[in-house]
Amino acid sequence: MNLQKLSFFITVLFIFTACQQQRTNTGEKEDVLTTVPDEPAFEFRKDLDAIRKDGVLHAITIYNSFSYFLYRGKPMGFEYELLSRLAKDLGLELKITVAEDIDDLFKMLNNGEGDLIAFGLTITEPRKELVSFTESHYNTYQTLVQRKPENWRSLPPYKVEKQLISNTLELINDTVWTRENSSYAERLKNLENEMGADIKIQYVPGNLTTDEIIKMVADGEIDRTVADYNIAAINKTYNPNLHIETRISFAQRIAWAVRKNSPDLLEAVNNWIEEEKQTDDYYVIYNKYFKNKKSYTRRIRSDFYSKNGNKISKYDDLIKDYAADINWDWRFLCSQVYQESRFNPKAESWAGAGGLIQLMPTTAEALEVEDVFNPEENLEGGVTYLKRIRNRFDAVKDSIQKIKFTLAAFNSGPGHVFDAMRLAEKHGKNPHIWDDHVEEFMLKLSEKQYYLDPVVDHGFVRGSQPYTYVKDIFMRYDHYKKFISK
């Protein structure tokens, strides 16, 4: 047996032995805490019945280029899209909490800061002491991420390979950078034991995501790291100077997690995952974030990708000026503009509304807006109209509730909102609170027994439209606040 074959045989033997003897050495999509606390506590209890009673599914995730991020004003991510579908199928509103440090995920879950960790976790035995894992989403494996030589394009492949680590034995006395409390670090420590030799493990801050650490390798800040292969592969699209073919683990299962005392939620999520994985949409979503290299490259090169700066759209400065005029958070006005036109100043609806904030021709004429497709004129007219509408709801004292009334009236017309307020009062609800009061009767204005009620002056309206309009704008604003500073 020649030396090359012997080296290959030993490497495979090391990996096989590790997977048989040490079942805690696998990584994850964004590797997370592997150390189990001395005294894990599960005092906080909240299962599916309590979640349904609240009407909200609280999920915990990480802000990165795969799970959850903002792009051109739209919240995106593998976890985000699946969570949105899960919450909808469970009939729940979705609230997302972002963990600042990856190591915090399990603690936040068991402290009750969320009901579900929606993030790519590797299923390992130590972690099973902390959480209950869902059915797996997909499988992957750990790989070494290293940088090719600077002149790699001019070299034949075999000369490039000679300058790279091609098997785990070559890591002896070499340096690898990773997060301390990660399964990547755990795997490297296991390799040290298996080889009977040291690997110099250097730790990076725990709040760095795997794609950020990979970028450090590509930029020459560090020499190598460990990552899940699917993440390494998509990162290589934007960083072709990376080599990612030195495999250091066998296959591993990637899943979400719930508290150990939430068996009903676990069953519901598992049933949903099993059914979802039978649909084409599930794999379309997966491919969008882990397979579509062109889309990934376009996103991370964009000025409007949230990790590249504090921009939502090319009209941010203009929106900031007019948001100040109405005394709104500019990110909130951005959310409304996105709802109306997706930041397209040439957008035109079937009903004839046009421009960034979709002014109807009669409204534009009354506001003396000459060109609704001119972004500045359109925003100036739109904000003037919003202020006029807001002034008609002086009886609403709570500032947030007043904004909701204003938005509903902007969408459906003030008359229909006043009808819903009168209906709410007639039926014992508070006419000055939108949430769970007036919004309920806004929805009922599409039902004959309500739109023919004597207190209703403006007749039928498809109340689901202003209802959804208000909810969507506030929900998107909540996402904006997580990614974009004020």
Textual characterization of the structure:
With 486 residues, this protein is α/β, with parallel strands linked by helices. Among the domains are: 140-251, Periplasmic binding protein-like II (D-Maltodextrin-Binding Protein, domain 2, 3-Layer(aba) Sandwich), CATH 3.40.190.10; 316-483, Orthogonal Bundle (Lysozyme), CATH 1.10.530. The chain is 47% helix and 13% strand. It contains 21 helices and 13 strands. The chain has helices at residues 3-21, 48-54, 78-90, 105-110, 125-128, 157-162, 183-195, 210-218, 229-238, 263-276, 280-290, 293-301, 316-326, 330-341, 361-366, 375-391, 399-412, 414-426, 434-444, 448-451, 464-483, and strands at residues 56-61, 69-71, 74-76, 93-98, 116-122, 132-133, 138-140, 142-147, 175-179, 200-204, 224-228, 242-247, 252-258. The strands form four sheets. Strands 1, 4, 5, 6, 7 and 13 form a six-stranded mixed beta sheet that branches. A three-stranded antiparallel beta sheet has the order 11-8-12, with helices on one face. The chain has a two-stranded antiparallel sheet with strand order 2-3. α14 crosses α21 and α18 crosses α19. The model is unreliable at 12-28 and 30-35 (pLDDT under 50). This is Transporter substrate-binding domain-containing protein. It is found in: Cell outer membrane.
